[in-house]
Amino acid sequence: MRGLPDFREFTSLDGAQEYLELLGDGNYVVKADGLCGGKGVMVAGAHLHSIEEAVAYCKECLPRFVICEKLVGQEFSVLSFCDGERLAHMPPVQDHKRAYENDEGPNTGGMGAYSCADHLLPFLSAEALAEAHAMNTACMVALRKELGQPYRGILYGGCAVRPALCTREHS
Hints:
Layout: E1 7-10, H1 16-23, E2 28-32, E3 41-43, H2 51-61, E4 65-69, E5 74-82, E6 87-89, E7 94-95, E8 113-114, H3 126-147, E9 153-161, E10 166-170
Antiparallel strand pairs: 1-4, 2-3, 2-4, 5-6, 5-9, 7-8, 9-10
């Protein structure tokens, strides 16, 4: 699907090492499935320094985890209020994830966020924001189809700007 990184879900270690090797050294992220207080994601290079370390973390994440392609780019989030038929988009925001200046500290799981008065971000074009809005709209339509009724609530689209806009997650 356009806008999604390559990924696979696992319920055992079967095939995990092979998939990590397929993505390539330093080009993967391992995500525990479930609530982890912002600490369930380990990124190659920052947290995992070898495929062996990644496999060991996969084992800790059982009974379910996801391995996905590492996205390199500026991350931003778009929240959209949904009444079941329409979306009202909030301005995009970017998290402050690292503990120290110049992104030199550990990943904190989020220490706040910023936005700009023009409802863009310094690295975000109006076209990329429109594409993020369209992805949230597609998510609303898919939820209606899957649930058999309109979704009402807040959609969270976590995105990354790369040569092509990519969605990293939806909640």
